[in-house]
Amino acid sequence: MIKARGLARQFRARGHTVDAVQGVDIDVSRGELVGFLGPNGAGKSTTLRMLTTLLRPTAGEAVVAGCDLLSDPAGVRKRIGYVAQGHSSGDEQKVIEELVLQGRFYGLAAGESRRRADELLERFDLTEIAGRTAGKLSGGQKRRLDIAMGVIHSPELLFLDEPSTGLDPQSRSNLWDRIRSLRATGTTIFLTTHYLDEADALCDRILVIDHGKIVAEGTPDSLKNQVAGDLVQFETGAPAAAAEIAAKVDGAQELHVDGNTVRFRVAKGDTVLPLLLRQLDQADASLLSIQVHRPTLDDVFLTMTGRSLREESHA
Ligand SMILES: Nc1ncnc2c1ncn2[C@@H]1O[C@H](COP(=O)(O)OP(=O)(O)OP(=O)(O)O)[C@@H](O)[C@H]1O
Questions:
Q1: 228-294 maps to CATH 3.30.70.980
Q2: Which residue CA neighbors atom 25 of ligand 1 most closely?
């Protein structure tokens, strides 16, 4: 659905050249929900604006929804939906009017546009507020209206730029459900985010971008597995004996003993637990508690770039 090669964009600002995107390759298959994750200024929006024909690449090429980005931008625009950051609909119109107008804008006949608008109102939980002016909606309702408008023409591929920025937790989770339901009906989705939990919860696959380059790529789980592994941590009454046992666990790394707490990293924590528990029991090393922590996407970003994504995105 997306095949981009060496896509790059330079900006000139006050005599400087900014290499916002430095030659990215992107492959997205039909039906996938792919997240583009990176800190502020990493190049996410610039890439999205290139893929949606709003910005001409300085170098590279791409085929988007079956059309060549450079030679057939109109073909790309017809087949995709794009929901930019922030609220894009007019504030004076009623919700239903916004949707019908958007459908007409995409060339739907009046009756068809109305039918489609009603369907989307239902699907995005907006039916009850169809007669309200768009300017009076809550943040979550506005964002759902934006997405409904972005898919009025039933695009095969939907681009969402930071869909949940600024929403409270309940509205975010509601929005995630709507995004999942769009994907379940066959829409391919490419979204940008700087929220790790969003990428983790929603995406089949994640591309991590930093300083205009893709630094990691994979499913949330495979990315986490690239990091040193799970952290196994337990409290025991016999830390010295327990540490000796832990040191012999197949693949154990970074063993630390801190008072009664023993911790180490291992590729798959849950698979080493049964044997570890048995051995601790045989050695009479009483166990007070034990936990296995999966690495987070933040650990992935830290490993790839040496910096914490969380710190940057909240800066
Ligand atoms: N029109 C422009 N002129 C000059 N520099 C620009 C322009 N647009 C973007 N940039 C620069 O390009 C880099 C990438 O910006 P971009 O908006 O793509 O990042 P982003 O990952 O989307 O960040 P955010 O999460 O803040 O939206 C930044 O350094 C930005 O300052």
A1: yes
A2: 40
Domain ranges of the chain: 2-224, 228-294
What is each CA distance from 216 to 43, 174, 305, 308, in whole angstroms? Answer: 14, 29, 10, 15
CA angle 245, 246, 248 (to 5 degrees): 70
Q: Which of 44, 58, 198, 210 to mutate to test the pocket of ligand 1 (most atoms within 8 A of CB)?
A: 44
Is pLDDT larger for residue 237 or for residue 88? 237
Architecture of the domain spanning 2-224: 3-Layer(aba) Sandwich (3.40)
Question: How many angstroms does the Cα of residue 20 sit away from the middle of ligand 1?
Answer: 6
Q: Do the domains 2-224 and 228-294 sit in the same CATH topology, yes or no?
A: no
Predicted model pTM: 0.83
Give the helix/strand (H/E) hosting 35.
strand 33-37
Contact residues of ligand 1, CB 6 A cut-off: 11, 13, 18, 20, 38, 40-46, 194
Interval 170-198: pLDDT, tens: 889 999 999 999 999 999 999 998 888 88
Q: Tokens 């583009």 — which residue?
A: 36
Looking up tokens 């693949």, which residue turns up?
251
ipTM: 0.96
Q: How many angstroms separate the CA atoms of 239 and 246, rounded?
A: 10
Ligand 1 center–CA 252 separation, angstroms? 42
> Among the atoms of ligand 1, which is closest to the Cα of residue 194?
25
Percentage helix, strand, coil for the chain under 3-state DSSP, each rounded to 5: 40, 30, 30
Cα distances from 42 to residues 75, 121, 148, 152, 287, in angstroms, run 28, 35, 28, 30, 45
